[in-house]
Amino acid sequence: MALQFIAKDPDTDEKNCPTVWIDVEVEEMLFQGLKPDEARMIECLKTGPIPDSEAIVRLPLRMVAAIRKACDEAERAGVRIR
User: For tag attachment on the chain, is the N or C end more exposed, with fewer CB atoms within 10 Å?
Assistant: First the structure.
């Protein structure tokens, strides 16, 4: 497995910050973000349960450019976008 680092949140300390990677082999994006507070988690659960194998993470909107870059990199690598 070879993860391709895309970007870290530019407004953090470079140690503990939201980050995005892509994994072209398994066609996935990976995100590091903040855990939601209880109120946000309750809102998320209104749309359905979250299995133990999944998680909600918060990313600041300033990460939109990094997420777009991850999408662009995935498309250039030939990942099938459905």
Answer: C
What pLDDT digit, counting tens, does each position of 28-78 carry?
Answer: 999 999 999 999 999 999 999 999 999 999 999 999 999 999 999 888 887
- Distance (Å, whole) CA 1 – CA 28: 11
> How many other CB atoms sit within 10 Å of the CB of residue 11?
10
Among all chains, which residue has been given the structure tokens 């990094």? 66
Residue at token pair 């498309």 = 75
The residues pairing with 23 across neighbouring beta strands, listed in sequence order, are 28
Q: What is the distance between the alpha carbons of residues 11 and 19, in angstroms, rounded to a whole number?
A: 12
- The residue with tokens 């082999």 is 25
Measured in degrees and rounded to the nearest 5, phi and psi for residue 30 equal: -120, 140
